[in-house]
Design a protein that fits this description.
- The protein has about 280 residues and is an alpha/beta fold.
- It contains nine helices and eight strands.
- A hairpin with a 4-residue loop joins strand 4 and strand 5.
- The N terminus is likely disordered.
């Protein structure tokens, strides 16, 4: 089975997710973005730019908008591209006229969803991990409108040797986060939601303080935990990317019409199929 390293880059995403009809004459420069920042005083700031990372840094260092004298930008919560200078200014004014609730709804449709799943053979100590990255807006589609091939074409699959169930779950997430950051996403520029059914991964944030205070050492042996390096790397990546973890409930008929579970079931089937193929080839 081939493992295509496919990504949805912005130029491949549905245009409705990042562009609007500008009404400009053909040939107008379309590289302007409208953005919303969450600030340290819990306000939402809206602006326009052609370089979001540079603009964020300007606001943070006090060389940007006067609005940031006395407050700091904390997080980019919305980014909308595909604008000319004129259409960006119009959209900026439109968003500034929204209520906070309306801006929050707008922001909730932006960002990316990362789905990961694994399948492991404990006897052979081998397993398969897979992930897929989708725009959050994709999850608003009704499940009956989703073709499984839309997801399988974007899946990235990898085989892992000398692993266990717990180790593989964290290995797969760390690998997926590293690829996500390396391939397409500069640090801190987009909201990222991780969807997983791994209790181990979900519980890592709650265990963080205890693990770090003990230097990732085992209580009983005072030796470093077997997966300590993976835990450290996971925390580092989660901090850099502003990761939010969403627990996916177990498979059941009650979730059969849920879009999140529709996507997750495709990833689940892919790792199981790949693991069977691998074992049959041994």
């Amino acid at each position: 089975m081939s493992c295509p390293a496919a990504w949805w880059s912005r130029d491949k995403l549905p245009r409705m997710a990042f562009e609007i009809s500008t009404g400009e004459q053909p040939g107008a420069l379309i590289d302007w973005q409208v953005y919303i920042l969450l600030c340290s005083d819990d306000t939402l700031y809206t602006g326009i730019t052609t370089q979001i990372i540079k603009r964020f840094e300007q606001h943070a260092t006090g060389t940007g908008a006067k609005y940031f004298r006395g407050r700091q930008p904390l997080q980019l919560v919305y980014l909308e591209g595909g604008h000319t200078r004129s259409s960006a200014s119009k959209r900026e004014a439109e968003i500034k006229g929204m209520t906070r609730a309306e801006k929050t709804i707008l922001a909730s449709s932006w960002g990316y969803a990362l789905f990961t799943d694994v399948s492991v053979n404990p006897q052979l100590r081998c397993g398969v991990g897979a992930y897929v990255v989708l725009p959050v807006s994709f999850l608003k589609h009704p499940p009956e409108a989703i073709e499984p091939t839309e997801i399988t074409e974007l899946l990235v699959v990898r085989r892992f040797a000398d692993t266990s169930s717990t180790k593989l779950e964290v290995q797969t997430v760390v690998w997926a986060l590293e690829e996500y950051r390396r391939e397409r996403h500069p640090q801190g520029t987009e909201k990222l939601l991780l969807y997983t059914d791994s209790q181990c991964v979900v519980g890592l944030q709650g265990r963080r303080a205890a693990l770090e205070s003990k230097g990732f050492l085992s209580k009983t042996t005072q030796q470093e935990l077997p997966n300590a390096s993976l835990y450290r790397r996971y925390y580092q990546l989660a901090d850099e990317l502003g990761l939010e973890v969403v627990k996916v409930a177990g498979h059941s008929r009650s979730h059969s019409l849920d879009t999140v579970h529709t996507v997750f079931s495709v990833v689940d089937r892919a790792v199981r199929t790949e693991l069977r193929f691998w074992i049959d080839s041994l």
